[in-house]
Amino acid sequence: MKSGNDVFVAGSQFPDKMDFSQGSLFGYIEDLQELTIIERPVRRSLKTPEEIERLTVDEELNDIERAVYLLSSGQDIQGTSVVANLPVLMRQNPAETLRRVLPKIREVLHVAGVEMQLTAAVSFLTVLQDESVSIHTYSHSFLHIILQNLEHRDAGVSNAWLETLLAVIEALPKETIRHEILNPLVSKAQISQTLQSRLVSCKIMGKLAYKFEAHIIKREILPLVKSLCQDVEYEVRTCMCRQLEHIAQGIGTELTKTVVLPELVELARDEGSSVRLAAFETLVNLLDMFDADDRSQTVLPLVKSFCEKSFKADESILVSLSFHLGKLCNGLYGIFTPEQHLRFLEFYKKLSTLGLQQENGHNDNQLQLQTLEQEKKYISVRKNCAYNFPAMIVFVDPKNFHLELYSIFFCLCHDPEVPVRYTMAISFYEVAKLLNSGVYTIHKELVTLLQDESLEVLDALVGHLPEILELMTTNGGENSGSESKLLSIPDLIPALTTAEQRAATSLKWRTHEKLLQKYACLPHIISSDQIYYRFLHRMLTIILTNNVLPVQKAAARTLCVYLRYNRKQEQRHEVIQKLIEQLGQGKSYWNRLRFLDTCEFIMELFSKSFFCKYFFLPVLELTHDPVANVRMKLCYLLPKVKSTLKIPSDKHLLQQLELCIRKLLCQEKDKDVLTIVKRTVLELDRMDISLDAEQLEKEKQQSEGRSTNVNDKIFEKKRRDNKTSSVLAKSMTLSVSGSSSGTSAGKEDKKSKLVRSQSFSTQALHPKYSNIDKCPNKSSATGYTSSVSGMGKSCMLSFTDDTFRTRSTGNSGNATFPSSSSLTTSRNSFNSADQKNNGNKESQSRKMSIKNRKSNS
Q1: What would the mean pLDDT of 342-363 be, rounded to a whole number?
Q2: Distance, CA of 97 to CA of 634 (rounded, Å)
Q3: Rounded CA Rg of the chain
């Protein structure tokens, strides 16, 4: 902020020869005024030492004592803060707050300003909603304060306290309401009271109608209601008229017919336009409570009178009439004669074009003198007509839409004002549902709204675009077959592309994102070739060129949907190749990040085998990416990547995954990435890989066949060995070597599993061992691979679904396959049997060798 010297220096930069003409002088004065405005907030924010001293409070005071002190001797802003903090004090220490703080607030409110009054009204309501005290305690402590401030001279403050009181009435018991509110209300509603007091009484009586029985309302409240309906002030009559709806619901149908309806009829003829408007809207809201006779003899003549006067002498009711016209027409439908039905339909048509044509009774000179206020009123009327259009379809029957309402529908969709077209776009889906099989008649308007110059209209239409297009294609008349989807909605594709381009060039990226998300429905609407040539490549371009992340993600997901429904292999392979080359291997790291997003959508929409076939290895290649953010995002994605694998068909991919994790652990230099890698390793270690049951069953059958052949050969050999001892000795030597090699291989396998498990846990839990020097070298990795591949095929194929687990751990990142108990038992029994046979054969060979030595000697 500039000081006074700074201002002088800035002023010294003016030219030496100053121009004292009137224009220049005013310019200098404006510059000085801007400088004073800049400095003014600083001067106001500064506090003198005396002010700071007055604002200082002893820190040793507790919350209750501090609140009492600030309310007693603090400034207004401090007292307001205490009042705002009242709900917190009530939750912490309700007894002391009620005993010491609340009496002080009551005293302060007598002389408090508007800000503190409004704050107190909100705080009292919050205490009630929090249920910090019982309703009996609340009514005893807070209700009197609320009632005292109802008639505050400021209308805003009075309304705030009234809202609090109306909320309190819902929770108070009937006896408390009778003694504390209803009895004083009789005197407050008298004509001798102030205008504000009578207005408050009207709103309270509307609320009390829900709390008491009909006979109590009839005896104690209805006389006051009649008196206030005849009040000399039009504000009171208007307010009471709007409360008649609540009173009618409280007293029932019979009393409404005999008491409320005559009052409404009289108020509908009131001299005040606001009173007539309130009476009309109350009549519309109470239509369900009137029987057919009341509607035909009382309500309908009043409505006809309103419609006739709305164009001539009482345009104030025009907006409200247009808003409620749909409800009125359907509510009175049963009592309309054909002539009346046609009259109300023509009245709606006239309102729909109000301000666009010279048919509202004014001459040309009056039309030229239309004020801006009238134009706004006419726009509101046409907007309300657009809002009521679905109701009017029901009124005329959807079968008669094309004859009776299509011209109005066309005008409203082409209205020059955006709010009207926006409302039509919102209600377009409702119109399409009502037309059902006749929906093909409005396809041109759909194209028109898609090409609308206002993005607000487009945004409103896109919300239900998939449902609208589905209705268009399924109920599109004769051309709704699957082979001729496009014929049912002419010019749809150009309109969709135009809408997307307009959204893309605007600054409203949320509309663009929403549009791209909804375009995922197009495979159900148009052909695969049209999507491929007109939309799919556009989605890829958006991913590559757009700068808004949500838009890129929406385009990526929609592209994956298009790819999912594309059955032509050439087109599929082309798109997959472009995704890998332009995104996965792109020069920009941003594109490589979007490739990972796209892969996530592919895992969501496609099968596991599809992802493993085309995207598994390109994803793993990003472990060597030079940008840390890409490697970090890849680490977050690795658990999902691993979940796509099936064993044993994807065993080679699992080995590649483990190798990549091991390289990340050994070679990663970024601390953040390394932390995420270690966390991911632990998560991968807890994951289970799904088994390919069919593949396992085939390999099991092959294994069983091989094992049967081996056993037959062994038994045949044993039978032959009994004939000659020389052949027996040779077979014993081979069996001993075979069994020892199998036993050593099994021990080596168990030992390698134990070493890998220990190294994994050490690497994952202790970062200090994560440097490259501690990592296993290539020879160890090669040894592990060979040991895994050297395991017997029968052992590998005898794993079951319950015992087969793949665990990614620590440095090596390799999978360990713990065998089942049945496998271990069978293996041990087989080895033990071999050892016994071999032992017998060895003993026989030793005896033979001893005999030969003796004979030689």
Answers
A1: 79
A2: 57
A3: 43
CA distance 664 to 671: 12
pLDDT of residue 424: 97
Which residue stretches of 388-491 are H helix?
389-396, 401-404, 406-413, 418-435, 443-450, 455-462, 465-474, 485-488
| Residue 568: how many other CB atoms lie within 10 Å | 11
Q: Which stretches does DSSP call E strand in 473-548?
A: none
Backbone phi, psi, residue 305, to 5°: -65, -40
Q: Please give the DSSP secondary-structure letter assigned to residue 768.
A: G
Q: CA 436, CA 732: separation in Å to the nearest integer? A: 87
Using omega within 30 degrees of 0 as the cis cutoff, is the peptide bond preceding 103 cis? no
Q: Which among 300, 289, 291 has a CA at the least distance from the CA of 260?
A: 289
Question: pLDDT tens, 776-810?
Answer: 444 333 333 333 333 333 333 333 333 333 333 34
DSSP 3-state assignment of 16? Answer: coil
Judged on CB neighbours under 10 Å (0-12, 13-18, 19+), 577 is exposed
838, exposed or middle or buried, with CB in 10 Å at 0-12, 13-18, 19+? buried
Q: What is the pLDDT of residues 575-589, one digit of tens each?
A: 999 999 999 999 999
Q: Which residues pair with 646 in a beta bridge?
A: 690
Round to whole Å and give the CA distance between 521 and 470: 9
Q: How do 807-808 and 646-647 pair as beta strands?
A: unpaired
How many CB atoms within 10 Å of residue 491? 16
Tokens of residue 396, six digits: 């005329």
Q: Name 47's Cβ contacts closer than 8 Å, sequence gap at least 6.
A: 55
Helix, strand or coil, per DSSP, at residue 690: strand
